[in-house]
């Protein structure tokens, strides 16, 4: 590591990153690589944070006939979930999580223009943010792209966004939905604070929450209106919440 002969600390991490008994799908040592399928290569690239190879692998997958959304939902997202599991099991360290997220981001740069788009007027306006204290945004970025490609107007506030910024922008934009993301247990509690303050101020928007550590039970506990395990479920929940808003406001002329 110190002499820079161990790229991305891979050998060091394999030897000292956690108990072999708890490891799963660990990369093979150098010189012991076997031929793997394209799907396995994509999964491994995300887990190992291989930013140099990921875009070429994604393009090869697309050229082979794999649907862009399937590449994302069946391969890339589960790979990131595996990274999260290894982090929670203390097999992976935080730099590996960040590297994997950056690799996922590069993969999605290739996929985003290829996702199907729905034409027509805006389905609704969504404020999107990763909550204060959390700097992870890959899941949020994927949701933003999926929502945009399915007719929503998305205002992405970025990551590490404090509650006052989220709420003031939601009021200013007259947002229909506010989608909050968090990756860590230490930051997911900020979602509860944002929603509680929003209710206190009388914000009429519906809240959608998600992230690696967020569960449906937690979403219900903090008063969120919807929970998305992944981007596609987030889209389905956004559609459901917009239908609910239109129903509730039908007596006042509906939602713009």
Write the layout of secondary structure elements.
Elements: H1 10-16, H2 38-48, H3 54-63, H4 68-88, H5 94-111, E1 125-130, H6 138-149, E2 153-156, H7 163-173, E3 177-181, H8 185-201, E4 206-210, H9 216-221, E5 226-228, H10 231-248
Helix pairs in contact: 2-3, 2-4, 2-5, 3-5, 4-5, 6-10, 7-8
Summarize this structure as a short list of keywords or feature phrases.
256 residues; 9% strand; alpha/beta
Structure, explained:
- There is one protein chain.
- The protein has 256 residues and is α/β, with parallel strands linked by helices.
- The chain is built from ten helices and five strands.
- The chain has helices at residues 10-16, 38-48, 54-63, 68-88, 94-111, 138-149, 163-173, 185-201, 216-221, 231-248; strands at residues 125-130, 153-156, 177-181, 206-210, 226-228.
- α6 links the parallel β1 (125-130) and β2.
- The protein is globular.
Briefly summarize what is shown.
The protein contains 10 helices and 5 strands, in the order αααααβαβαβαβαβα. With 256 residues, it is an alpha/beta fold.
The low-confidence parts are 19-27
In whole angstroms, the N-to-C terminal distance is 57 Å
Largest sheet: 5 strands, parallel
Net shape:
globular
Count of helices?
10
Based on DSSP secondary structure assignment, what is the total number of beta strands? 5
Could you tell me the mean pLDDT? 84
Which secondary-structure class do the elements indicate? alpha/beta
Radius of gyration: 20 Å
Order of helices and strands: HHHHHEHEHEHEHEH
Strand order of the largest sheet: 2-1-3-4-5
> Which percent range fits the helix content?
40-55%
Q: Approximately how much beta-strand content do the residues carry?
A: 5-15%
